[in-house]
Design a protein that fits this description.
- Strand 11 and strand 12 form a beta hairpin.
- The protein is α/β, with parallel strands linked by helices.
- The protein has a domain of about 180 residues: FAD/NAD(P)-binding domain.
- The chain has 15 helices and 22 strands.
- Pfam families: Amino_oxidase.
- InterPro entries: Amino_oxidase, FAD/NAD-bd_sf.
């Protein structure tokens, strides 16, 4: 039986621990915080009107089959632990009446939102009406588009909103995205990629290379296929799933909307945090020891092979034959096992997030997941990332995209109330040009006021209906999840992320900062790759 130590009880760490225990290893997980789940965090607020429960990380689950495979591989079934509900709409997009920098407005009448009364939404379409009662918090400036997991229905919704030519454009992009997804799923996402040479050696077909366009950007892909600016904006948003700027993110990220819209978005009853509970239960059932409140301070790897880990306050190291690090790759190679040559490319961090957790009275009429776009999307990325090379500092976004999750789930809010998770993209925590010092007195509260004002400007004003508000800044994510700078997705990179196999024999990496990337299914796939590399004892 091999002795395995897993550093970190995030989704990647727990998934790896369960798989390795099922293979016959003796597995111990050390987690520095008092709870498991990592960035899949939770917050509970007791109030006179009742209990509010919030997910403070992801707001929906995609590719649930990845987790179903995980539970089946460890001798169980996902639906024994988690009650999944499909979402329709997956996301409700609220677009501004006009668009700004980098997204020129169209002049083609066929690409304009329809005003023909016969084409306005019906109860069968699933679309909310354009316009509304601002006093009731339901106003919708601009145009609304609901995404769903049926490509024909979604194309019909696009045609209704933007015209038949826009829908045809989307179908052409969709075919390209399907090719990217197929190649990525077959050759990249479920196998180890340790270097650029490995990536080049994959069994790419010429058609796959043409589809993936290794030198292209997601923004460039949108410009090539989509004439409707708001559809370009929708596509650009998926770059933020990896913490990147769409103007620099690889075109291959078109696989993300394909996966979401082809396989659907899902919500676990009781919140996304129930997935962490399920993984913990599965680990304990398999005999994994999970030690919370235990901080790993270093990895012993004399002679190029791991021998164990050092714990804060412990006299002697904990021996191990294998160490699986579910920490940010930057933390691993900077602090736990200093490896200067592995730090190259890890210093450019992904975007972070500024979060409001709101207890709201009444019914806002919103979908589970809503995105309120700004007029000038490029200005948001200019602010979040800044340009340190030219002396331009990063800064909070004045007119941000606002993501609002409102689960229709009585388990997470009192009757007659809603539990809102509000997120805006934000610069990381840093006292340099590339970040913002979110600990500065008064900054977080002032910015929260601004975000609520932006929502009001976009037709959803809940300021007079708040039971409470709780804030989370990038600085908080540094403390709760050990994310350097509060960067949600680790470093910003292209197709190649830090390898799952470390520089010492017996050292492996899982989680969103390593291959194949961020997001719940990708993190679970990293655990699958690592378990396959380690194998049975």
């Amino acid at each position: 039986m091999g002795r395995v130590v897993v550093i970190g009880a995030g989704v990647g760490g727990l998934a790896a621990a369960a798989r390795l225990a099922a293979l016959g290893h003796e597995v111990t997980v050390y987690e520095r915080s008092g709870v498991v789940g990592g960035k899949l965090g939770r917050y509970v607020r007791e109030t006179p009107v009742g209990t509010f429960r919030f997910d403070t990380g992801p707001s929906l689950l995609t590719l649930p089959q990845v987790f179903a495979d995980l539970f089946e591989a460890t001798g169980s079934k996902l639906d024994e632990y988690v009650d999944l509900t499909p979402l329709d709409p997956i996301v409700r997009h609220f677009f501004p009446p006009t668009t700004g920098s980098g997204l020129p407005p169209t002049t083609d009448p066929s690409l304009q939102p329809t005003t023909d009364p016969s084409l306005q939404p019906t109860t069968d379409s699933g679309l909310p009406p354009i316009g509304g009662d601002a006093a009731a918090g339901r106003a919708v400036p601009g145009t609304v588009l609901d995404s769903c997991a049926d490509p024909d229905v979604f194309a019909a919704r696009i045609a209704e909103r933007f015209g038949v030519e826009a829908a045809a454009d989307w179908r052409r992009l969709w075919r390209r995205a399907e090719r990217i997804w197929t190649a990525s799923w077959r050759d990249v996402l479920r196998r180890p990629v340790d270097s650029a040479r490995d990536l080049a050696r994959l069994s790419w077909r010429l058609g796959d290379l043409a589809a993936i366009a290794p030198g292209g950007t997601l923004r460039g892909l949108g410009r090539r296929y989509l004439r409707e600016p708001r559809l370009r904006m929708l596509l650009d948003r998926y770059a933020t799933y990896t913490g990147a700027d769409p103007r620099r993110a690889p075109a291959a990220l078109a696989a993300i909307p394909y996966a979401e819209l082809a396989f659907g978005g899902w919500y676990p009853r009781g919140g996304l945090g129930t997935l962490a509970d399920a993984l913990l239960s599965r680990c304990l059932d398999l005999g994994v020891v999970v030690a919370t409140g235990s901080t790993v301070t270093g990895i012993d790897a004399a002679g190029g092979r791991v021998h164990g880990v050092r714990l804060a306050g412990a006299v002697a190291p904990v021996p191990a034959d294998v160490v699986v690090a579910n920490t940010d790759a930057l933390t691993l190679y900077r602090d736990l096992l200093p490896t200067p040559d592995r730090l190259a490319g890890l210093t450019e961090r992904s975007l972070a997030g500024f979060v409001l957790l709101l207890g709201v009275r009444g019914d806002s009429g919103l979908a589970h997941h809503n995105v309120f776009f700004p007029t000038d999307y490029d200005a948001e990325f200019d602010a979040v990332f800044g340009d340190p090379g030219r002396g331009v500092p990063a800064r909070p976004v004045a007119d941000p995209t606002v993501f609002v999750s409102v689960p229709d789930d009585p388990l997470v809010r009192p009757a007659g109330h809603e539990a809102w998770f509000v997120l805006v993209n934000a610069p990381r925590q840093a006292r340099t040009l590339g970040g913002v010092d979110w600990r500065r007195p008064g900054l977080a509260d002032a910015y929260a006021d601004r975000v609520l004002a932006v929502l009001a400007e976009r037709g959803v004003d809940v300021r007079d209906r708040l039971v409470f508000r709780e804030l989370r800044t990038p600085a908080d994510l540094v403390g709760t999840a050990g994310a350097p700078g509060g960067a949600i997705h680790g470093s910003v990179g292209g197709l190649l992320r830090p390898a799952n196999r470390g520089p010492a024999r017996g050292l492996f990496l899982v989680g969103g900062s390593t291959h194949p990337g961020g997001g719940l299914p990708m993190v679970a796939l990293s655990a699958q790759i690592v378990a396959g590399e380690i194998g049975p004892p």
